[in-house]
Write a structure and sequence with these properties.
Length: 165
């Protein structure tokens, strides 16, 4: 029988090791670009690491005001940090057009998104058949695909049930 407390400690240690590796990547990126490593960037990255999902800059700002009020990280700093982190591939975003973007920690495993226009819920999914069709279409057009993103817009089951639009 395995002691559950050992599992928790092992899991926490693994998470901390993953975050430390992420911080090391950030440090190398900043050094390569001649930028300083700021505590604000680390705090924002930590929040995205600790909270899987998709977050607007405003949600990140509100969360940081609650959890780290002494940091006094302004919304402009958050936007700049998110832009840098996305440009360097540490995080990714989903665009909602005029409504802005939502950010998530970059996931090494590919996935696509279904986005509800009623409640803004984001459902992540992966389907190998779709992936193969995309590769086949790229081959057919002699197109060298490097990356792709699929976003399907519509209504989630809850919004359909409620009759939202």
């Amino acid at each position: 029988m395995v002691d559950d407390s050992k599992r928790v400690v092992t899991s926490q240690a693994k998470c901390e090791a993953e975050f430390t590796a992420l911080l090391e990547r950030l440090g190398a990126i900043l050094k390569r670009n001649g930028l300083k490593n700021t505590h604000q960037r680390e705090v924002i990255l930590r929040l995205l690491f600790d909270r899987p999902g998709h977050h607007t800059p405003e949600q990140i700002h509100e969360q940081l005001k609650k959890e780290a009020p002494d940091q006094k990280i302004g919304i402009a700093t958050i936007y700049r940090a998110l832009s840098l982190l996305e440009k360097e591939g540490l995080i990714s975003s989903i665009s909602f057009g005029a409504s802005g973007k939502k950010y998530e920690l970059a996931d090494p495993t590919h996935h696509d998104h279904m986005i509800c226009r009623g409640c803004s819920k984001i459902i992540e999914f992966f389907d190998e058949r779709i992936e193969e069709m995309q590769r086949e279409i790229a081959r057919r057009y002699q197109f060298e695909m490097e990356d792709h993103m699929m976003q399907i817009f519509g209504l989630c089951s809850e919004c359909v049930e409620k009759g939202r639009k």
